């Protein structure tokens, strides 16, 4: 018997990316805050709880950082007036969804640190697996933490190492020897912008250029938004330092192994982004094509659950010849002030966010493509919505393998006991969500999504963690 969730909260049934980072350095001295804002706006899908921007003037007095951060979307936290006040030609920005550390203003980023060598502003995407030990080590030597996020541990280590090294990039390199796990970092020192990626390259990070300015972003879609050209990806383990003299690179920490997150391609990233040379759109088309070959079924229409199911549905349609259609209207305007329905109310978050186009599905056999099933409650509601709208059959196809294990690297894929596939068969899940058939992407086909490259992380599907995972779930450890 499968347990049903009592919650009507769609947030509990979806997987979230933790963060997006963005950095800018304009060598002509132009203010960068507005450009960073547009960059964050393009990265908003990676985190909607809080955001922030910190800027500095490289020609001004060292140590002056202007920053603003708060709970909410970029469009809620910033307006023209607040951006105007953020004067400076170098800066970093961040959008956040909390997976480690609670959702509060103190935990918003960028973090700005004042220390004897000046100031440091840092934005981080990912989770460290050894943050609790490092935090204890720092606490016992006098560190006082103002947040409960592991990004502060990284900032402390960089600041501490800076006292022993000749440059901030050398301090970042030393800190990277201590920290373990997933991190894509953008660090601003008074005169330098530094981008660094963990040795496994779990999280994406790339470099862009526009006129006489360089940018660093979690995803390339932000470069398109600001009219910048993609230059290249930051390599796993690489530290890139941007100064008016140009870009320098330290690859001494790189290893010949990488473990980029395969779920970025399936779900997290925007389809117009490219990660490590592979287009997210093409990955999703391929996922849909594979599903059509491995789980064919007779039907009248193929539809995707927005947003990430749409492209995979198109791929399924291309391969099977079954017409592609749009069955859902999504209301994306769910900002910070959105009042979530209580359990007693008849409205559900799923219905408020998603509505079925009755004319598209009434009387039809529907193939519905979604990116994943976590607990199964959201899928069950969506299948019911299609059937209530008159679909005669609903065949669910999932563009990822079943989730069987948690993620410790910066996403909120929960513990085993909350994953429906962990202790239920595909047939049981199919029955629970009320579908007429259910098919997942075969785990052995994942490499086809990224052009046959084999160096990726698929631990949430296989349990093969690229780094030894913590023995217990450390996410949210500091609040205990
Ligand atoms: S465990 Fe899954 S979600 Fe986490 S990094 Fe690996 S592939 Fe991505």
UniProtKB/TrEMBL annotation:
<dbReference type="InterPro" id="IPR000836">
    <property type="entry name" value="PRTase_dom"/>
</dbReference>
<feature type="domain" description="Glutamine amidotransferase type-2">
    <location>
        <begin position="19"/>
        <end position="245"/>
    </location>
</feature>
<feature type="active site" description="Nucleophile">
    <location>
        <position position="19"/>
    </location>
</feature>
<keyword id="KW-0411">Iron-sulfur</keyword>
<dbReference type="InterPro" id="IPR017932">
    <property type="entry name" value="GATase_2_dom"/>
</dbReference>
<keyword id="KW-0315">Glutamine amidotransferase</keyword>
<dbReference type="GO" id="GO:0051539">
    <property type="term" value="F:4 iron, 4 sulfur cluster binding"/>
</dbReference>
<feature type="binding site">
    <location>
        <position position="457"/>
    </location>
    <ligand>
        <name>[4Fe-4S] cluster</name>
    </ligand>
</feature>
<keyword id="KW-0328">Glycosyltransferase</keyword>
<comment type="function">
    <text>Catalyzes the formation of phosphoribosylamine from phosphoribosylpyrophosphate (PRPP) and glutamine.</text>
</comment>
<feature type="binding site">
    <location>
        <position position="370"/>
    </location>
    <ligand>
        <name>Mg(2+)</name>
    </ligand>
</feature>
<keyword id="KW-0479">Metal-binding</keyword>
<feature type="binding site">
    <location>
        <position position="407"/>
    </location>
    <ligand>
        <name>[4Fe-4S] cluster</name>
    </ligand>
</feature>
<feature type="binding site">
    <location>
        <position position="460"/>
    </location>
    <ligand>
        <name>[4Fe-4S] cluster</name>
    </ligand>
</feature>
<keyword id="KW-0808">Transferase</keyword>
<keyword id="KW-0408">Iron</keyword>
<dbReference type="InterPro" id="IPR005854">
    <property type="entry name" value="PurF"/>
</dbReference>
<feature type="binding site">
    <location>
        <position position="308"/>
    </location>
    <ligand>
        <name>Mg(2+)</name>
    </ligand>
</feature>
<dbReference type="Pfam" id="PF13537">
    <property type="entry name" value="GATase_7"/>
</dbReference>
<dbReference type="GO" id="GO:0004044">
    <property type="term" value="F:amidophosphoribosyltransferase activity"/>
</dbReference>
<keyword id="KW-0004">4Fe-4S</keyword>
<feature type="binding site">
    <location>
        <position position="261"/>
    </location>
    <ligand>
        <name>[4Fe-4S] cluster</name>
    </ligand>
</feature>
<keyword id="KW-0460">Magnesium</keyword>
<dbReference type="GO" id="GO:0009113">
    <property type="term" value="P:purine nucleobase biosynthetic process"/>
</dbReference>
<dbReference type="GO" id="GO:0006189">
    <property type="term" value="P:'de novo' IMP biosynthetic process"/>
</dbReference>
<comment type="similarity">
    <text>In the C-terminal section; belongs to the purine/pyrimidine phosphoribosyltransferase family.</text>
</comment>
<dbReference type="InterPro" id="IPR029057">
    <property type="entry name" value="PRTase-like"/>
</dbReference>
<dbReference type="GO" id="GO:0000287">
    <property type="term" value="F:magnesium ion binding"/>
</dbReference>
<feature type="binding site">
    <location>
        <position position="371"/>
    </location>
    <ligand>
        <name>Mg(2+)</name>
    </ligand>
</feature>
<keyword id="KW-0658">Purine biosynthesis</keyword>
<protein>
    <recommendedName>
        <fullName>Amidophosphoribosyltransferase</fullName>
        <ecNumber>2.4.2.14</ecNumber>
    </recommendedName>
</protein>
<dbReference type="InterPro" id="IPR035584">
    <property type="entry name" value="PurF_N"/>
</dbReference>
<dbReference type="InterPro" id="IPR029055">
    <property type="entry name" value="Ntn_hydrolases_N"/>
</dbReference>
<comment type="pathway">
    <text>Purine metabolism; IMP biosynthesis via de novo pathway; N(1)-(5-phospho-D-ribosyl)glycinamide from 5-phospho-alpha-D-ribose 1-diphosphate: step 1/2.</text>
</comment>
């Amino acid at each position: 018997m499968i347990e049903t969730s009592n919650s009507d909260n769609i947030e509990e049934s979806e997987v979230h990316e933790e963060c997006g980072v963005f950095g800018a350095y304009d060598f002509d001295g132009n203010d960068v805050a507005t450009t960073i804002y547009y960059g964050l706006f393009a990265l908003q899908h990676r985190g909607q709880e809080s955001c922030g921007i910190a800027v500095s003037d490289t020609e001004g007095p060292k140590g002056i950082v202007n920053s603003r951060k708060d709970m909410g979307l970029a469009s809620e936290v910033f307006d023209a007036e607040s951006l105007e006040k953020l004067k400076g030609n170098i800066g970093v920005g961040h959008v956040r969804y909390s997976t480690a550390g609670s959702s509060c203003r103190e935990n918003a980023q960028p973090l700005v640190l004042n220390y004897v060598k000046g100031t440091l502003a840092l934005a981080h995407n990912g989770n460290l697996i050894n943050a609790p030990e490092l935090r204890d080590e720092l606490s016992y030597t006098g560190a006082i933490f103002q947040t409960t996020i592991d990004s502060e541990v990284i900032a402390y280590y960089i600041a501490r190492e800076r006292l022993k090294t000749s440059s901030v990039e050398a301090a970042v390199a030393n800190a990277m020897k201590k920290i373990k796990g997933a991190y894509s970092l953008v660090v601003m020192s008074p005169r330098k912008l530094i981008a660094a990626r963990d040795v496994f390259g779990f999280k994406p990070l790339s470099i862009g250029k526009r006129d006489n300015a360089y940018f660093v972003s979690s995803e390339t879609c932000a470069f398109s938004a600001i009219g910048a050209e993609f230059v290249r990806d930051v390599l796993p383990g690489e530290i890139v330092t941007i100064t008016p003299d140009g870009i320098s690179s330290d690859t001494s920490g790189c290893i010949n192994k990488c473990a980029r997150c395969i779920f970025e391609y399936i779900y997290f990233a925007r389809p117009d982004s490219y990660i490590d040379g592979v287009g997210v759109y093409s990955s999703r088309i391929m996922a849909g094509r594979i599903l059509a070959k491995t789980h064919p079924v007779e039907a009248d229409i193929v539809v995707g659950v927005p947003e990430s199911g749409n492209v995979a549905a198109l791929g399924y349609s291309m391969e099977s010849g079954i017409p592609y259609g749009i069955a859902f209207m999504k209301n994306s305007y769910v900002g910070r002030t959105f009042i979530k329905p209580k359990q007693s109310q008849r409205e559900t978050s799923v219905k408020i966010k998603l509505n079925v186009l009755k004319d598209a599905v009434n009387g039809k056999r529907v193939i519905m493509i979604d990116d994943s099933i976590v607990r199964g409650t959201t899928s069950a509601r969506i299948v019911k919505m299609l059937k209530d709208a008159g679909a005669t059959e609903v065949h669910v196809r999932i563009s990822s393998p079943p989730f069987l294990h948690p993620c410790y690297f910066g996403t909120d894929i929960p513990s085993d006991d909350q994953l429906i596939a962990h202790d239920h068969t595909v047939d049981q899940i199919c029955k629970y969500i009320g579908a007429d058939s259910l098919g997942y992407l075969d785990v052995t086909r994942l490499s086809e999504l990224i052009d046959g490259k084999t160096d990726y992380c698929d631990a949430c599907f296989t349990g093969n963690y690229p780094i030894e995972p913590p023995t217990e779930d450390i996410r949210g450890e500091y609040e205990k």
